[in-house]
Amino acid sequence: MNCFYCGERCDDKYSIKEYVKKTFTNYDIIKSPSSKYICKECVWAFGSKSKIKMIDGENREGSPRNYCWYITKNKKIAYTKSHMEYLRKLLIDEKLETPFKIIISDSGQKHLIFRSNWNYQNNNFEIQFEEESIIIKKEELYKTLQLANKLSAVFGKMNLLKCDDVSYSISYFKYYNNLDDYYRWLKIKDKKISKLAAWLSKNQKEAQDKFKSINA
């Protein structure tokens, strides 16, 4: 039999009568709607007091939906926004242990793990970013992230997806004395990969340390 939530093989130990809350509404995205059971991994993923191992070695207890995840068949490693540098390295630099899943949670309000899919290669892999799936090509993400960081130095990461007002172009020109990369960003900022890069980007102070003003 298959898990009601994720579709993985499971036994009859965990019944949906006991483990699927009446408040659950995402029936349109479950993998095996006819199943009466869920797997132990989904019991953990939907739990409120699950054991959580952080990337820095800290052990916690709580709801997995509040974290970002790198999951393999052998381990589950959690990240928060305070571990942003670890997440950048995970997505761009690290050789990933296949098969794997990567889940990026921004709000912590949605159960995302059951929506994610297994990946079997280190490039051109899929991640779950909130409610959207994104295909990652490491070189593309790296270049897009560098561009996002360059703009973050001027107006901060929180403004990267809404920087098309003329005031932003003026600020960018004053900082770099050109608008080339600003216009490059405007052309791609609504793409999924750009939204992820904006989320992963450095804050303004960190970005300024990397990209100095031409007027400094």
Question: In words, what does this structure look like?
Answer:
- This protein is of the alpha+beta class.
- It folds into 3 domains: 1-46; 48-136, no CATH class; 139-210, no CATH class.
- The chain is built from 8 helices and 9 strands.
- Strand 8 and strand 9 form a beta hairpin.
- Helix 4 (138-155) crosses helix 6 (180-188).
- The longest helix has 18 residues, at 138-155.
Question: What characteristics describe this protein?
Answer:
216 residues; alpha+beta; 3 domains; two-stranded antiparallel sheet; 8 helices; 9 strands
What topology does this entry show?
Elements (H helix, E strand, L loop, with lengths): L13 E2 H4 L17 E2 L1 H6 L4 E4 L5 E4 L5 E5 L3 E4 L4 H9 L7 E5 L20 E5 L2 E5 L1 H18 L10 H11 L3 H9 L3 H9 L3 H7 L6
Parallel strand pairs: 7-8
Antiparallel strand pairs: 1-2, 3-4, 5-6, 5-7, 8-9
Helix pairs in contact: 4-6, 4-7, 4-8
Number of distinct beta strands: 9
Tally the structural domains. Answer: 3
Uncertain runs with pLDDT below 50, 5 residues or more?
none
Described by the principal axes of the CA atoms, the overall outline is elongated
How do the strands line up in the largest sheet? 6-5-7-8-9
Oligomer: single chain
Order of helices and strands: EHEHEEEEHEEEHHHHH
Kindly state the percentage of residues in helix: 25-40%
Mean pLDDT: 95
DSSP summary: helix tally: 8
Q: Which structural class fits the helix and strand makeup?
A: alpha+beta
